[in-house]
Design brief:
The structure is a single chain. With 117 residues, the protein is an alpha/beta fold. The chain folds into 2 domains: 76 residues, no CATH class; 36 residues, no CATH class. The protein is 45% helix and 12% strand. A 3-stranded parallel β-sheet has the order 1-2-3. 8% of the residues are buried.
Length: 117
């Protein structure tokens, strides 16, 4: 990739929690330093975890040092309960996901050919 390429990972709050779970690392601080040195993370609220819950989590010691590399995305409550697993499952069955994702996401999935078997 060109040197000015921006890498951003989009995830729900639940996935952010797993990302910073020490059980997955030998040296979490070192590994997260590498990740956040190369990429940004965009965190979307999920169900009951709104922007306040995300902000509170970002202010904890294990995430505070990466706060400038993490952005919060506020999504409508109706979409906060939709998981990527649910979207992939529906697509695999040939079902529509129109009611589950915004048009821009649907267009991106189609354009990039994502989740094709």
């Amino acid at each position: 990739y060109p040197t000015d390429t921006r890498i951003e990972f989009v995830m729900g709050f639940d996935t952010l929690e797993r990302l910073v779970d020490r059980q997955y690392y030998t040296d979490m601080d070192c590994d997260l330093d590498v990740l956040f040195g190369l990429a940004r993370v965009l965190v979307a609220n999920r169900d009951e975890n709104g922007q306040g819950a995300i902000q509170a989590r970002l202010d904890t010691p294990d995430l505070k040092r990466y706060r400038d590399r993490i952005d919060i995305i506020e999504i409508p409550k109706a979409m906060g309960s939709v998981s990527s697993s649910q979207v992939r499952s529906r697509l695999a069955k040939g079902l529509s996901i129109k009611a589950l994702v915004p048009t821009s996401i649907l267009d991106s999935i189609d354009r990039m050919g994502l989740y094709k078997s």
